From TrEMBL:
PANTHER family: AT30094P, SPHINGOSINE-1-PHOSPHATE PHOSPHOHYDROLASE
Protein keywords: Membrane, Transmembrane, Transmembrane helix
InterPro entries per UniProt: PAP2/HPO, PAP2/HPO_sf
SUPFAM superfamilies per the UniProt record, alphabetical: Acid phosphatase/Vanadium-dependent haloperoxidase
Transmembrane segments: 24-46, 58-80, 100-121, 128-146, 152-171
Protein known as: Phosphatidic acid phosphatase type 2/haloperoxidase domain-containing protein
Cited Gene3D superfamilies: Phosphatidic acid phosphatase type 2/haloperoxidase (1.20.144.10)
Organism this protein belongs to: Candidatus Wolfebacteria bacterium CG10_big_fil_rev_8_21_14_0_10_31_9
Recorded superkingdom: Bacteria
Phosphatidic acid phosphatase type 2/haloperoxidase domain mapped to chain residues: 53-167
Lineage summary: Bacteria, Candidatus Wolfeibacteriota
Example of a GO MF term: sphingosine-1-phosphate phosphatase activity
Length: 188
């Protein structure tokens, strides 16, 4: 797997420093896109008129992120330390990152992918945009030199599985807690 990781990393990272606009775009996505997703998610929540759906979407996103980035990624990093590419190859990354922080798995990617299912729950089109941006975030983290491709893949899997786990918890009694059943129960 290490040969695969190095080959894919070298293929993506070889373009670094050639076109300044691409470098800046990669830096933006690698560092700031997750904040843009949070902002976009907040707008989606504010525009949602159904308060039950709004509540579940908020809980869905927050709990998925806490589980993926705040718990699983940190546990893995505590027990397994993998050096970042810029440390291994001895170059300056486009993005400032501590060489003492573990590379595996990607916390940014886990965070972004954890938000995808919540976005799909609110709006399918937004969910597709969240997916596209999350993929770009992952590729950008490799491009700027702070992650290996397998770090990104692991982060994406952790984010998606965390979202699916939270979905199972939140919606295990979906008929019991659906909007229509609540309206009927309240004499509507």
């Amino acid at each position: 797997m290490q040969t695969f990781d190095i080959s894919i990393f070298n293929f993506i990272h070889q373009f670094t420093g050639r076109i300044l606009v691409i470098d800046w775009t990669a830096i933006f996505f690698a560092k700031y896109a997750m904040y843009a997703l949070i902002f976009w998610g907040a707008i989606l929540l504010l525009r949602e008129k159904n308060w039950v759906k709004k509540y579940y979407a908020f809980a869905f996103g927050v709990l998925s992120v806490i589980l993926s980035r705040g718990i699983i990624v940190e546990i893995i990093r505590f027990f397994y330390f993998k050096q970042r590419p810029f440390v291994v190859f001895g170059f300056d990354p486009l993005l400032s990152q501590s060489p003492l922080e573990a590379s595996f798995p990607s916390g940014h990617t886990a965070f972004c992918f954890a938000l995808i299912l919540g976005a799909f729950y609110l709006n399918k089109k937004s969910g597709l945009w969240f997916l596209a941006i999350s993929i770009i975030v992952g590729i950008s983290r490799v491009y700027v030199g702070v992650h290996w491709p397998l770090d990104i893949l692991a982060g994406a899997i952790i984010g998606i599985l965390s979202g699916l786990f939270i979905k199972c918890i939140l919606f295990r009694d979906s008929k019991k807690y659906s909007t229509s059943s609540l309206i009927k129960a309240n004499g509507g």
